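Much of what follows relies on a compact textual record of a protein's fold. A complete example follows; check for yourself that the lines match position by position.
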Amino acid sequence: MERLSRALQEYQTTHHEAAGQLESIQEKLRQSKNEQAFWEQMAADAEQAKSALEKRLAEQQTVSTAQPKRTLVQFVSAANTAASAVQLDEADTRKLIDQQLRQAGWEADTQTIKYNKGARPERGRNLAIAEWPTESGPADYVLFVGLMPIAVAEAKRKNVDVSGALQQARRYSRTFTASAETVLSDVSVVGEASYRVPFAFSSNGRPYLRQLSTRSGIWFCDLRRAENLAHALDGWYTPEGLTALLKRDEVQAHEQLASDPFNYGFHCVTTSRMLFAPPNWLSRPGNGKCCWRWPLAPAKPRPALR
């Protein structure tokens, strides 16, 4: 009896385990069927959406084919609207630059002081004449000190790279067309790069921001020497400032600095050596930046402990 009881117990245990496995398999089968039904429904929905999209696309193509002229007219109208908005932006920029030039001492008004309205340089006047003709197109401004053209200025919209626009001002300076009243300066005629006007500006009317250095401020370059670098200014040069800069001969000044003796009675050997032999980048003309580093004072001797 005991042997039969153990056999019955083993059979019941085995049967219970088999029943559990069968139930687990049936549960997985039900889940698989549910997932299959879900994905089949998703596929049917995607196919339905695809058919609807193809139908809408066919309808749009039919409408576009039936009304090509109307669509083209709308496109041209939108392009003209955008172009007029750009022109208004440039006109607003010119007004800002006109005001800035007047504050710096120039006579500037894009609407009246304009080449095609008869504006010409005059003795005793500092004029910013707009739309001055050159061999490569009209320059936005040419600044005159009396009869002499001293700078070309290029005006750009607010979202344009100002430093890049300076290249256009360079080109206008090289291809400047003189009128009967114009008297070119000797310095600009014999410049190394054959520029007819010695200085170039570009601006979009924005005040200078270091975070947006290439898209703000007034960019300037002295064109008389090829190694002169362009840099941003906080404001426009005055007529007197540009005239003084034109008279300054940097080549002669550097030659004189290199040839003159530097014996000025310095008692500090370190200071005299620093002033006599500055770094190469410091003495380079046109760099526009410099940084003096003075030697630290020698440490004081400590008193002896007693």
About this structure: Residues 188-192, 278-287, 291-306 have pLDDT under 50 and may be disordered. The first helix runs from residue 2 to 66. Helices lie at 2-66, 68-103, 162-174, 186-189, 239-247, 250-259, 269-276, 280-283. The longest strand covers residues 148-155.
